Amino acid sequence: MSASAFVRITRPHNAVVAGLTALLGYLIATGTLTPPSLLLAVVVVLITAGGNVINDI
User: Fold this and answer.
1) For a designed S-S bond to 15, which of 9, 25, 35, 48 qualifies (C-beta 3.0 to 4.6 A apart)?
2) Which class for 3: exposed (0-12), middle (13-18), buried (19 or more C-beta within 10 A)?
3) pLDDT at residue number 1
4) Quick count: other Cβ atoms within 10 Å of Cβ 48?
């Protein structure tokens, strides 16, 4: 399996949109973005990517 296939199976576009959505929700809820909120986005992206892989296997 090629490296591009490993990336493609995570559906990176969907994962990034999920992370941005989490940031938007945080911004709406608190009215501000803080550096720890970036950790929220990273965690959401990784969990979404992992879920996509599990779903496709």
Assistant:
1) 48
2) exposed
3) 75
4) 21
pLDDT tens digits, one per residue of 15-50: 999 999 999 999 999 999 999 899 999 999 999 999
Name the amino acid, one letter, at 10. T
Q: Decide: residue 39, CB within 10 A, 0-12 exposed, 13-18 middle, 19+ buried.
A: exposed
Query: Three-state SS for 1?
Result: coil
Q: Which two tokens stand for residue 5?
A: 């296939």
Geometric angle at alpha carbon 56, from 55 and 57, rounded to 5°: 100
Q: Where are the domains of the chain?
A: 3-56
Q: How far apart are CA 57 and CA 52, in angstroms?
A: 9
